[in-house]
Amino acid sequence: MDLDRSPLARPFPELPTIEGMTLRTVRAGYKAWDRADLTLIELIQDTAVAGVFTRSACASSEVEMGREQLRQGKARALVVNAGNSNAFTGYRGREAVEQIVAQVVEALDCEREEVFVSSTGVIGVPLPRDIARAGVAAALQAPPCGWEDAAAAIGTTDTFTKGAGASAMVGETRVEFAGIVKGSGMIAPDMATMLGYVFTDARIAPELLQEMLSSANAATFSCITVDGDTSTSDTVLAFATGRADHPPIRSWDDAGADAVYAALLSVCRELAQLVVRDGEGARKFIAVSVSGAQSDDSARRVGLSIANSPLVKTAIAGGDANWGRVVMAVGKAGEPADRDRLSIGFGGVWAARDGQPLADYDEAPVSRHLQGEEITIEVDLGLGAGRATVWTCDLTHGYIAINADYRS
Amino acid sequence: MDLDRSPLARPFPELPTIEGMTLRTVRAGYKAWDRADLTLIELIQDTAVAGVFTRSACASSEVEMGREQLRQGKARALVVNAGNSNAFTGYRGREAVEQIVAQVVEALDCEREEVFVSSTGVIGVPLPRDIARAGVAAALQAPPCGWEDAAAAIGTTDTFTKGAGASAMVGETRVEFAGIVKGSGMIAPDMATMLGYVFTDARIAPELLQEMLSSANAATFSCITVDGDTSTSDTVLAFATGRADHPPIRSWDDAGADAVYAALLSVCRELAQLVVRDGEGARKFIAVSVSGAQSDDSARRVGLSIANSPLVKTAIAGGDANWGRVVMAVGKAGEPADRDRLSIGFGGVWAARDGQPLADYDEAPVSRHLQGEEITIEVDLGLGAGRATVWTCDLTHGYIAINADYRS
């Protein structure tokens, strides 16, 4: 099936070159398609790595191994297979990953723990080992490529390539960030997985990089949803080659730590939002801002309850300022809420305050706002200082068409 | 908007007369429609009552008052308003309910705690007190009606009337059960609420009735989902008029208690399944059976994770035996699960066992099963003895059309 480019797509940005890494892609042929589907990223010695993975109890072998490998905090290579997620394939799936790791270890003369593998695509079919072996061998010999080529090669049913960059000053030294991402929840028939990768030349200790990534992830990738369906393979990895010329950053108190975190956060936020912009059938980008919660975490859960509600998402698709459905979604979130303190608005205009519709509520500006492509929903719980913003897209006939009308 | 009758509809059954109660309906005119929309059910003195309500933190005044009234365990009347849920209407909503209660208390010379009120329909508009007053006055004078009339009058965007009956032997005495229900989650634009009512002439103490209803509810109404969107007004009430000629049943050890519970459970299960059969856009009825969980409750949560997954529901809509999506939904449920012990089947045929696709899996009988209207999904977690069955419907273009294409 051919998917139209999302109307919410963004052009691929100019991204900086990151010293100490090389991108390569080849067509391994995991599916019968005419495009690169294996990406090999070589990283200089002592590159720091951090990662966050799906919480699925049915995670793939790639995720399972990645978690173990992270304990070392060092990376020399990343291999991404597109077209087959290798999830739910038992010992055969694990063997396929081990084979790829062994092949790269031999070629780069590095350690087993330094080679990370991700796979995305159909669930339940072991990754074919012969295709993987030939693909990795070819990738090791392939010419370097640019960011957009790599962003395209890791995609499956993505309708546009997604990348984001940033920079930060550490003392007098400018450090660069570049990231790519694919997916939007469980995207299309039999396809799965959000994969995100951020690279920087900053010198940063793996333990601190992990703290920064976990924190940035909580405010970005963990705040997006397309359909509430968590993949078995979701992975975000951050790599720091350490080639920038500044004193190493080992703790939050070191010079430049805040600036580096801000840049990492900004790249993660942009990548996360790009995933939502490629949500299946998406026609509107929705930001749900929750304030007045008992904690930030509680605000995030209320926001996700709203963002995952099919009735809220279809109302936005229909341009309907149906704040009753937002009340419903707040009520079912399982978080502290008091009906009589709850306020709800769209596009900055309150429709209801303190548990009651506003007597002078003017729906006209709200209706105009809902005709646009960028929608905001504001919720104030009136209980505390906790706040969070969550991003999602609307639920349209396109979602049903992609997931029900075509056989996988 | 006119909704077509659900293809999964069932004819309204013959229901027994329950001694000690009278049904009446009138057109109050909560909406501009030509149908009865106010139901008044009068119950004989000392009728026992039990109830379960929505867990929404934004519950309506009706729900709030119902919870308080239940402590007495006695009922003389039930009033159901259709067309306006009176939810999220602050003190004005509460006043409207108080007014209805006071009016019935005066007419029947009973206590405030004995008059139960439910309302269903648009959220955020206070129930109009003048319309309610005239409606209740007319209902008090109206001629008695039958079960199907009452089932129709409590409905909103339901596409068919829903009822179920059962009987049980208490010693030599036959006791009768009749129940009616409306809704299917948050049904249609601005509409809300599942309301279910079960009536029996059995002599049963309110405390035991409450225990039985809570238990039956956990295995029936709490095991259905259409879109995962919990209403602000969900209510199930059970009334026992005590007119049957048998010794009172006060505990689970008393003669007839088990038979009465079995009949109550059967009525609740049938009513719950009828709600799913009227799910928005439903074309297929899906039973998800989970076994091998660490507890029954854990099995139910895994079942609901599958039944609420838009990717699973669209796969069934498309007749696609996409068991990878079931793996995903198990994995994200947040319940104990072990990928390598997980087995998944459709229509009684295993597609994957112990974490791997079956080598000799024959998709042909599964595809035939998925062409039908009654679908089963079997999941075995391989961990323990916990089991549960959950019921839902598929997710189709009809759902989007009903909720996004029409303005409320």
SSE diagram, text form:
The structure is a homodimer of 408-residue chains.
Chain A: E1 21-26, E2 38-53, H1 61-70, E3 74-84, H2 90-108, E4 115-122, H3 129-141, H4 147-153, E5 162-170, E6 173-182, E7 195-200, H5 206-219, E8 235-240, H6 257-277, E9 285-293, H7 296-307, H8 310-317, H9 323-331, E10 343-346, E11 349-353, E12 356-357, H10 363-371, E13 374-380, E14 386-393, H11 397-405
Parallel strand pairs in A: 3-4, 7-8, 9-13
Antiparallel strand pairs in A: 1-2, 2-3, 2-8, 5-6, 6-7, 9-14, 10-11, 10-13, 11-12
Helix pairs in contact in A: 2-3, 5-6
Summarize the largest interface: chains and residue counts. A-B, 72 and 72 residues
**H/E element sequence of chain A:** EEHEHEHHEEEHEHEHHHEEEHEEH
Oligomer: homodimer
How many structural domains are formed by the residues of chain A?
Answer: 2
Morphology of chain A: globular
Major beta-sheet overview of chain A = 8 strands, mixed
As residue ranges, the low-confidence spans of chain A are: 187-192
CATH superfamily of the largest domain in chain A: L-amino peptidase D-ALA esterase/amidase
Q: How many helix segments of chain A?
A: 11
CATH class of the largest domain in chain A: Alpha Beta
Structure description:
- The structure is a homodimer of 408-residue chains.
- Chain A is α+β, with helices and mostly antiparallel strands and 408 residues long.
- Chain A is 32% helix and 26% strand.
- Chain A contains 11 helices and 14 strands.
- Residues 187-192 of chain A have low confidence and may be disordered.
- At the A-B interface, helix 8, helix 9, strand 12 and helix 11 of A face helix 8, helix 9, strand 12 and helix 11 of B.
- Chains A, B: GO terms for molecular function: L-glutamate N-acetyltransferase activity, acting on acetyl-L-ornithine as donor.
- Chains A, B: InterPro entries: Arg_biosynth_ArgJ (IPR002813), ArgJ-like_dom_sf (IPR016117), ArgJ_beta_C (IPR042195).
- Chains A, B: Catalyzes two activities which are involved in the cyclic version of arginine biosynthesis: the synthesis of N-acetylglutamate from glutamate and acetyl-CoA as the acetyl donor, and of ornithine by transacetylation between N(2)-acetylornithine and glutamate.
- Chains A, B: This is Arginine biosynthesis bifunctional protein ArgJ.
